[in-house]
Amino acid sequence: MNKAFIGLGSNLGEKVKNCNDALEYISEFCEVTSMSSLYESEPAGYTEQPKFVNAVVKIETDLSPHNLLNSLKLIEKKMGRETTFRWGPRIIDLDILFYDNLVIESDNLVIPHEELQKRRFVLEPILEIESDLVHPKFKVSVKEILNNLKDGSEIVKIGKFFIENLN
Fold first, then answer.
1. Bridge partners, residue 134, by sequence
2. Which of 55, 57, 54, 71 is nearest to 3 (CA)?
3. Which residue is catalytic, options 21, 93, 119, 120?
4. Using CA atoms, how far apart are residues 81 and 68, in angstroms rounded to an integer?
5. Which of these, 93, 79, 130, lies nearest to 8 by C-alpha position?
6. Separation CA 161–CA 165 (nearest Å)
7. Annotated catalytic residue: which of 62, 86, 90, 120?
8. How far apart are CA 109 and CA 165, in angstroms?
9. Which of 93, 108, 121, 157 is the most exposed place for a label (fewest CB within 10 A)?
10. What's the chain look like in SS3?
């Protein structure tokens, strides 16, 4: 089984429910082994939009990285995500943050996620569920990346997923 970390985010509608619904869909095709808390964060990139609810889940999957990406995109579509503009508001956003120790840079898939080292709302939830994780491209621990982060944005832990045991 392959280990992957998936970032979840929502800033439209019932944001916490959207993250929980996405987690239920993810659990239909892989095993969710760890879940971070839910966090509220300021939007990155385009800031004139509502705050986000973010989380990270660790999964085990037999899917290849590209098939996992396709499955996550299907969930986004099923949940009503519409294409707007980069960093725009969304009902759900699902990103592959890490997949084993792979480094992939293709036209439609970059692993590790190319922005994660800039985002407190991704790094803190990752550390909550795996404190010794090393970034396979930079060869530096996620903890060290967070400690050196210039991003001064604040994130606030707001609770847990509704679903405690999916499998």
1. 141
2. 57
3. 93
4. 17
5. 93
6. 10
7. 90
8. 30
9. 108
10. CEEEEEEEEECCCCHHHHHHHHHHHHCCCCEEEEECCEEEECCCCCCCCCCEEEEEEEEEECCCHHHHHHHHHHHHHHCCCCCCCCCCCCCCEEEEEEECCCCEECCCCEECCCCHHHCHHHHHHHHHHCCCCEECCCCEEHHHHHHCCCCCCCEEEEECCCCCCCC
Beta bridge partners of 61: 2
Among the options 21, 62, 81, 119, which is catalytic?
81
What is the rounded CA–CA span in Å between residue 101 and residue 111? 9
According to CATH, the superfamily of the domain at 2-159 is: 7,8-Dihydro-6-hydroxymethylpterin-pyrophosphokinase HPPK (3.30.70.560)
| Of residues 82, 90, 108, the one with CA closest to residue 54 | 90
Residue 137, amino acid = K
Amino acid of residue 163 = I
Per-residue pLDDT of the chain (167 residues; tens, 9 = 90+): 999 999 999 999 999 999 999 999 999 999 999 999 999 999 887 778 899 999 999 999 999 999 999 999 999 999 998 877 677 789 999 999 999 999 999 999 999 999 999 999 999 999 999 999 999 999 999 999 999 998 778 899 998 877 654 54
- Judge whether 132 counts as a catalytic residue: no
> 81 catalytic, yes or no?
yes
